[in-house]
Design a protein that fits this description.
By secondary structure, the chain is an alpha/beta fold. The protein folds into 2 domains: about 270 residues, Alpha-Beta Barrel (TIM Barrel); about 90 residues, Golgi alpha-mannosidase II (Immunoglobulin-like), CATH 2.60.40. The chain is about 25% helix and about 20% strand. It contains 11 helices and 15 strands. The strands form 3 sheets. The chain has an 8-stranded parallel beta sheet with strand order 7-6-5-4-3-2-1-8. A 5-stranded antiparallel beta sheet has the order 9-10-11-15-13, covered by helices on one side.
């Protein structure tokens, strides 16, 4: 499977945890289409942990829980495919999943064949209960081999939380994306810590091997499986902007059947999605102000444009944050500047920004701009 840009979709875990069902998957798939999320690029519907029976069958095969999924996984794959979407599933490299269901250790090839026969398109592969005496790369290389042998192209989403030397071996074992952090929670502290933990690792991300900062919590509003206080809408905007600048996979975690209009507009923001899906896949150029919680970023884009993000990570007090164009190489001779637009409102600024772009930001706020260098004189 060639994964040139970060996968986009929805995952059951953040909101529903163990409380998943066939009806939930079908209703969510339909809601994603009805609300325009599929057309915005969100094409994967991913079933996370807790989908299977507690025991394998007599032949050692995984089985879908007949109460949760009475028609089985292939039925859901057929339904999702008929709607122009793709189906994802979950397993784990240990003998059990994180929630105690059967894992794939020593069953990699039989499980990969089950996923292929079920016409699954995406596998999230977790990190619980594995034998610590064996290096992590062995588990993931083995499952990648099994997926390759299954005869079906299946996106391989490695989820080992950035442990066991992940960055040294993830590309070599064939991971298409890789969870580099612990689990996200629905509060701004979690969002901030996750993003800041990966700033130095973002240059390692690229086509066919994307750094996954974990699923989105936008619109959860302190409801669901990872609730931890919730966020303001401004904090959700910052969350989404940062994930797009990092070109992280975008997996929605809220209940899209009941999504509010504000969150829906945010998740469909075409300017930010275009940055996340930019085919050049360049890492951000990071500039940190002397105050640790004021950050700014620039990013080369494929069409000769640039994206600039300004972030106030502080918990108190507005701050003016800037990105000085000299940091990205623009000569400060007065001959060149940037023509920019606001990625939130779409507003094209009439002025030419000559030496920097600045904004006064409330705590936990961000602004993203996009544009190209122009000759002033």
């Amino acid at each position: 499977m060639t994964v040139n840009t970060p996968p986009m979709g929805w995952n059951t875990w953040n909101t529903f945890g163990e409380n998943i069902s066939e009806d939930l998957i079908i209703e969510t798939c339909d809601a994603m289409i009805e609300k325009g999320l599929r057309d915005a690029g969100y094409t994967y519907v991913v079933i996370d942990d807790c989908w299977s029976c507690r025991e394998r069958d007599s032949e050692g095969r995984l089985r879908a829980d007949p109460e949760k999924f009475p028609h089985g996984i292939k039925y859901l794959a057929d339904y999702v495919h008929s709607k122009g979407m793709k189906l994802g599933i979950y397993s784990c490299c240990g003998p059990k999943t994180c929630m105690g269901y059967p894992g794939s250790l020593d069953h990699e090839f039989i499980d990969a064949r089950f996923f292929a026969e079920s016409e699954v398109d995406y596998l999230k592969y977790d990190w619980c209960y594995h034998p610590r005496i064996i290096e992590g790369r062995v588990f993931y290389n083995r499952m990648k081999m099994a997926l390759n042998a299954s005869g079906r192209d299946i996106v391989f989403s490695v989820c080992n939380w950035g442990q066991d030397g992940l960055f040294d071996w993830i590309r070599g074992v064939g991971g298409d994306l890789y969870r580099s952090t612990g689990d996200i929670s629905d509060n701004f502290t979690s969002i901030r810590e996750i993003f800041r933990s990966q700033i130095d690792n973002l240059p390692l991300s690229g086509p066919n091997c994307f750094n996954d900062l974990d699923m989105l919590v936008c619109g959860m509003n302190n409801k669901g499986n990872v609730s931890a206080g919730g966020c303001s809408f401004e904090e959700y905007k910052t969350h989404f902007a940062l994930w797009c600048m990092a070109q992280s996979p975008l997996m929605i975690g809220c209940d899209v059947r009941n999504i509010d209009d504000q969150t829906l507009a945010l998740l469909k923001n075409p300017e930010l999605i275009a940055i996340d899906q930019d085919p050049a896949v360049r890492p951000v150029v990071f500039r940190q102000w002397p105050w640790m919680n004021m950050h700014s970023y620039a990013k080369h884009l494929a069409n000769g444009e640039y994206a600039f993000a300004l972030v106030n990570f502080n918990d108190e007090d507005p701050q003016t944050v800037s990105y000085c164009f000299a940091e990205i190489g623009l000569p400060l001779t007065g001959e060149w500047g940037f023509k920019l637009r606001d990625c939130d409102t779409g507003e094209e600024f009439e002025k030419i920004f000559e030496d920097k772009v600045s904004a006064t930001l409330q705590p936990h706020s961000a602004r993203v701009f996009r544009g190209r260098p122009v000759r002033i004189r």
